[in-house]
Structure to design on (420 residues):
């Protein structure tokens, strides 16, 4: 057996100066004793005692003969072959081949033995060092960084500490530059921040980590699929497609198209591209926000051009909706939100509140109790409970009554607020 290559400074070595290399090679260097030497080396790696028996199942005739030459005894004819390490150690010492026994003999044959405990310690230190780029992130990402350390995502993506550190260095570089304002295309951002326009393409380890950080930064909810990823990136100002993300509005002004549609009393669909290139130049004092398009369509039918400004999320807030609401809020508009009285509705409202301030629009525990009392056949409440930061009493009321009230059920009071 050949001695291993360059020595590692942390390897544990056995003294080899007193070993008779030539005689040792003839004795333990037999290819038919490789199994025995490997068993001894594994014990040394684990700091286990080099005593007791080791057994080889289904040995060949040559392996039996090699064991006989080693110990000077018949290897027997059983189905397995057993060699006592104490006997080998004693023979090496008495013969003078290795006066200090098995350990230096095996080290001479196979090279320094790296103890597994030391390997694990070095690996743990390397992984700890791999996470150091996270320390450069802003405080609001500290909880996300802690989760990343505790989960197995990074190890699955990077495999080695060295690759992980490179990955996190690039991820931290991208996250420090987010959110992007004004919004920019995802490839253009990647080219500027990371030197590669394709660095954040779907499926790359870097895109997976950065998108996870983006969601922690913006509060974007869980999901999957291409549309969800597009909206998640857009929540931090990174646009994969500025035309697919839209928001439904009624009664807004501030661009020629909006003015024309409002004068006609018709709903308007605004794209993210329109909102990033030509946002409304004016902002009304109050803007109402609903979850379901039925509310907006009924308001258009009822009040036409006189309807109060209304924005419909149509479920989870899109990048276009968030862009519009943030713009209006920054221009002084007070946003008033209403959604479904169920757990999904509370989650949508909570996600919106984490990204843009709003006040409840008939969306409190008292409003729920009033609506439930007027709806004797309301369907049962299902799903996982959620919180309501704007009114902690609301989820308590939902739990106690156990019914869901959709926006369409409370159209009349909502429409009354939208009247001219």
């Amino acid at each position: 057996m050949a001695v291993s290559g360059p020595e590692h400074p942390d390897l544990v070595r056995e003294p080899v100066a007193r070993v008779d290399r030539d005689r040792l090679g003839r004795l333990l260097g037999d290819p038919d004793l490789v199994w025995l030497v490997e068993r001894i080396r594994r014990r040394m790696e684990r700091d286990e005692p080099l005593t007791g028996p080791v057994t080889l199942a289904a040995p060949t005739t040559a392996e039996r003969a090699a064991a006989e030459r080693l110990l000077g005894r018949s290897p027997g004819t059983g189905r397995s072959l057993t060699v006592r390490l104490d006997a080998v150690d004693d023979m090496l010492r008495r013969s003078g081949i290795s006066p200090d026994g098995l350990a230096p003999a095996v080290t001479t044959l196979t090279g320094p033995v790296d103890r597994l405990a030391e390997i694990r310690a070095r690996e743990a230190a390397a992984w700890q060092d791999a996470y150091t780029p996270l320390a450069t992130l802003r405080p609001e990402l500290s909880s996300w960084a802690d989760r990343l350390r505790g989960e197995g995502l990074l190890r699955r993506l990077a495999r080695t500490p060295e690759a992980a550190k490179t990955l996190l260095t690039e991820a931290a570089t991208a996250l420090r530059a987010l959110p992007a304002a004004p919004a920019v295309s995802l490839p253009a951002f990647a080219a500027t921040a990371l030197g590669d326009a394709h660095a954040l393409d779907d499926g790359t380890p870097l895109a997976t980590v950065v998108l996870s950080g983006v969601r922690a930064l913006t509060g974007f909810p869980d999901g999957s699929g291409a549309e969800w990823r597009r909206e998640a990136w857009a929540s931090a100002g990174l646009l994969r497609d500025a035309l697919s993300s839209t928001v439904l509005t009624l009664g807004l002004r501030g661009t020629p198209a909006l003015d024309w549609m409002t004068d006609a009393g018709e709903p308007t669909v605004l794209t993210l591209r329109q909102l990033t290139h030509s946002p409304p130049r004016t902002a009304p004092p109050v803007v109402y926000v609903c979850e379901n398009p039925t509310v907006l369509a009924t308001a258009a039918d009822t009040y036409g051009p006189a309807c109060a400004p209304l924005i419909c999320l149509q479920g989870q807030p899109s990048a276009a909706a968030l862009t519009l609401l943030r713009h209006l809020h920054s221009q002084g508009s007070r946003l008033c939100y209403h959604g479904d009285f169920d757990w999904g509705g509370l989650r949508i409202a909570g996600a919106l509140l984490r990204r843009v301030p709003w006040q409840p629009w008939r969306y409190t525990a008292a409003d729920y109790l009033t609506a439930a009392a007027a709806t004797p056949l309301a369907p049962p409440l299902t799903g996982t409970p959620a919180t309501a930061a704007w009114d902690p009493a609301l989820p308590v009321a939902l739990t106690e009554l156990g019914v869901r009230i959709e926006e369409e059920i409370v159209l009349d009071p909502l429409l009354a607020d939208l009247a001219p």
Observations:
- Residues 1-17 have pLDDT under 50 and may be disordered.
- The domain at 246-418 is CATH 3.40.1360 (Dna Topoisomerase Vi A Subunit; Chain: A, domain 2).
- The beta strands are 53-57, 80-84, 184-185, 238-239, 246-250, 268-271, 286-290, 310-312, 334-337, 359-360.
- The chain has 20 helices and ten strands.
